[in-house]
IMP cyclohydrolase
Amino acid sequence: MYVGRFVVVGPEVGAYRVSSRSFPNRKITARDEALTVGPTEDALETDNPYVSYNCLRIVETPTGETAAFGNGSHVDPIAEKLELGYPARDALAESLLALDYEKDDYDTPRIAATLGGDGEALIGTVRKDALLVETVEEPTLVATYEEDSPTAFDLEADGAAAAASEVYDHEFEHAVCAAGVARTADGFETAIENGN
């Protein structure tokens, strides 16, 4: 089954996977304070605004570090609102609502999640017909297609690298790359899986 891009978040770990039929020549790289999705060296040039973006940022908030991750340019305003002290629910809801679903041929939803240092985990999506933001107590997935409402997901990973690998290797079709994040005693760790 093809579900497109998806996020999974649980109380301790989270992951984001790029799945694509149209733009498979992408990878995730670490730069500055973010993990960034972008074209590989052999990718065809495109002016599509949805191909390159920060997919994961860890920011310092008034209550400690928080990770924000998702499928597009909305990750940056979510992270910025968290830094300003917005509650994670408000940062997700306001940013998703402001940027709205992607105005492409498929009305692609925007999806995102936050994982707080305080143990709070939230997941959200904005579709053409709804804005959903939920607190999660167990690993939960939301995807751009087919699984576009938050639903329980069997994520067994206990670290960032394991989370990135697990979602990359999941049976959903057309895996391109993945990022993982996990809460540790020393803050957050991140990992990248580019299928190499």
